User: What shape does this take?
Amino acid sequence: MAHHSSHGHRAAVDFGEEIEHLRESAEAESERYRRLAEQLSEPGDRVYVDVGCGGAGMALALAAARPEARVIAVDTAPAVVDLASERAEQAGLAIETAVADVGRPESLATAVDAPADLVWARGVVHHIADQQAALGALAALLADGGRLAVDEGGPRPQFLPWDLGVGRPGLEVRLTEAGSRFKEAVRGEHHGVSLPYGWNVALEQAGLSEVRTLNETVVKPAPLQGADLEAALRSLTAQVDRCEEFLDVEDRAAWKSLLDAESPHWLGARRDLHHLEIQLVYVGLKG
Ligand SMILES: C[S@@+](CC[C@H](N)C(=O)[O-])C[C@H]1O[C@@H](n2cnc3c(N)ncnc32)[C@H](O)[C@@H]1O
Assistant: This one.
């Protein structure tokens, strides 16, 4: 969301709406967070940090997995931190919260006042102009033997068959391309530094070792139905909204028709959508 709010070049986003998106996303992905918390937590861990916590999906999963550990949920936006506290209270789980900026290591170090056994950072490092420096600041929070886990997504998920009956073939490929150009434009607005070597190398350069990935593959053949179909439509709609300015007029019109429930081409009425995705989390160890 900082993409939109901090630059002025792109349309301002309704912050309340963003809070609802963060809440929904944390709720929708609670099962994935539960699995990841099981894999990432270890007996004897004492301090966990969820940085750029959004709806605190991971903070809550860690608090549930290891009730004896301290869990600190950190975000730069006070309203997001309030959302984290609210969700923790609703779930009956104890977490601490703090407002801090990943781009300002001293604010981060103040918020996290004890060496961490696990720092979880999903969807936040790309908000920082110097991502490599941000990884260094996150790695500096770790205790010896602590892990930094970074989730910046994997390849774009794939949902559509090639013959949509509308628009030029290759529509979804061009949406992926538009997504890359969107990210490049955001980086330009940040005066951001390029990171053209991948998260595994970036974690090594942040001084971490034994870098590995936790992979989950999603392979759902057609037809997608119910919640799976809704999730596919939500994902495509969000990507089209985000990247619209990088699509040509013809592609924009095709997406409008495909994502409109009133249109004869509405994707929600099709029985040939599928879902292929690799979800990647990179993990590096200190010491
Ligand atoms: C894309 S959301 C991801 C939220 C959550 N981690 C998730 O996966 O659902 C990015 C989050 O990072 C926060 N954020 C953006 N820039 C930040 C910064 N410089 N320091 C700390 N948090 C930041 C935003 O407020 C938002 O909650």
User: Anything to note?
Assistant: Residues 1-8 have pLDDT under 50 and may be disordered. Residues 2-285 form a domain with the Rossmann fold fold (CATH 3.40.50.150).
